[in-house]
Design brief:
5 helices; elongated; mainly alpha; 2 domains; 75% helix
Length: 85
């Protein structure tokens, strides 16, 4: 959402402010929000950044032996990257 807001025009920013600051949601706002995020590539860019963080987490964990705790952390990384939102 932050990326879509930053990349949006004044009308789109007003939409985000109405929904998130003023807490005035209307029918169809979720679909409109998703369309704005797709239009501005926000979902793809956020996912790419998340993958980078996931790779950094995996690299940090590489130094540790494979034990159940490490397996759980790696599974958490995968879960976060596999879910849609």
């Amino acid at each position: 959402m932050v990326l879509a807001f930053e990349r949006g025009d004044d009308e789109e920013k007003a939409f985000w402010r109405r929904c998130l600051e003023d807490l005035e949601q209307q029918d169809g706002d979720l679909d409109h929000a998703m369309a704005l995020m797709r239009r501005h590539g926000a979902l793809d860019d956020a996912m790419a950044e998340a993958r980078g963080f996931g790779a950094a987490a995996r690299a940090a964990l590489a130094a540790f032996p494979y034990v159940p705790f490490k397996a759980a952390l790696l599974e958490a990384v995968d879960f976060c990257l596999d879910r849609l939102y």
